[in-house]
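Re: your question from the hallway

Yes, I did run it. Sequences:
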Amino acid sequence: MNFYLPIAEMSVNILIFLGMGAAVGFLSGMFGVGGGFLMTPLLIFSGIPSAVAVGTEAAQIVASSVSGALAQWRRNNVDIKMGTVLLVGGIIGSIFGVQLVGILRRLGQFEFFVTMCYVTFLSVIGGLMLVESLNEIRRVHREKLSPSRKRRQHYWIHRLPLKMRFHRSKLYISAIPPLLIGITVGLLAGIMGVGGGFIMIPAMIYLLRMPTSVVIGTSLFQIVFVTAATTILHARQNQTVDIVLAVVLMVGGVIGAQFGAVAGEKLRGEQLRFLLALLVLLVGLRMAWSLVATPGEVYSLSTGTGGFR
Amino acid sequence: MIPFLRRLGTLSNVAIAGMLMICAVVPSVAQQRRQRATPVPMPERAVPPPTPKSAPEMAAAEMPRETVQADISTRRVAVTSNFTGTEIVVFGAVDHSRQPNPESGYYDVIVVVEGTPSRLVARRKERVLGLWLNTDSLAFQSVPNYYAIASTRPIEHIASGDVLKAAGIGFDYVPMVLAKGAEAAGAAEIKQFRDAVVRLKQREKLYSEVDYGATFIGRSLFRASVDVPANVTVGPFETRVFLFRNGELLSRYVARLNLEREGVEQYLYEAAFRFPLLYGLATVLLAMMAGLLASTLFRRGAH
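Structure:
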């Protein structure tokens, strides 16, 4: 079943991409992650131009996170004020990220840059998750309780100016750290086509010390709007959003996520994280390989009616 | 016994009727084939096929000069959502043909189909600190997106390099215009990048050279076909037809066709480049609706 993608300008078998969307959707439903950091590399591996993969994946993340965000909203698990600060930072970061994509594309370095970003993030995140999940598995086996974390009272974050009160999170902290976290996540969304939950959630827990009950809802709230803004910015600036490909991935993704969520309930948390860590490391290795392996052809062409890909 | 014989009789009747029908059909097919294959005898048949040396003089003395005309099977090719490539068929005829029969190889035909020119940057990777990254590049202002040659035999057998160069036939003469300032790269460097463009485009099946892709099917009628892959860029295509005799270019003809996007793709493509903001907003709206629809659908299904 071949289908012509108008922006990627290639004819592809739609079933492959539907299956890819479903597979990543299944994993994201099972692990409770966005899946952008798996989907974008997969799209690049399958021959979609890097910039189109990034722009299109942003649109898919909107679809896959909107229902989760709404569910959290209904349960009153969203800190709107904190979410808004993160969102403002996110949009600033996204504007810079999308601009950077345009500049790097013109220089012919975007593919290299995005691959480097993925190799770095995937190996760091995958490595940390692997260590953490292995420790957890060992701990569960020994049936020992980990010592509870000490709450440092004089934290450097508390000394920053521009303090704001976040009622829902029961925090009175400076707006600068959440703004910076937002900017980082927005940059990643613009450059890598990811939601950025894997950066934002640990940052919210360990840096901002937000209560875990509002962390997921607030991050989803931010992700929906930042990826939506990123999609519009990519479409406007770089014309790299393929609506046909996006719809195919959305359909596959939402179906896969439903089954993944069911499967996820049957597995233990630390085992899930161990599996996910392995998967993340594998994708990172595959990307690293494309940087160091001698290519069959050292020349490449970039064309495209709307700009250089 | 009798019923069996009767059945045998009807069977044989059917068989005879069938054979009669085949006999009725076969001659007509044979006739058609004969009509197509063997040309009607013409005064030229009396003239023996001229030897290579005497050909030009004889042509000038006795006959009006040959000219070639051609047309394309479809003037407009629509690129729709299920476009998986197409075939462009070029039909042509030689006026005042002196060819005794289609197999004689009296004339040579080269058909060059050239696609829409577009901007392009060729890049070369080099190993820097163990990592492969793009280092050198060459920008082209215009390179035909598609370039196909179909000929009655390998083009280097048809005419000399100089003749082909003058006519602009062959991968070495694909019209590639360098971008401003790119000339500074030096001739050797430019040649390397040009060759790389041709090689990569060949790999994508966008550039092709089909020896024996053109054939004469009558004394004057010929046909050539080239494949157009799905990844082609839409726009006007130019088809040039060259008629050769003994390495000499006798006549040429230009025909045009258009590749167009049709249906939903055309709207999407135009929207993406002409109304990018609206296109982006529409994509986001679609994504939000898809997510919400899925969550309500599956929630209802689950409970």
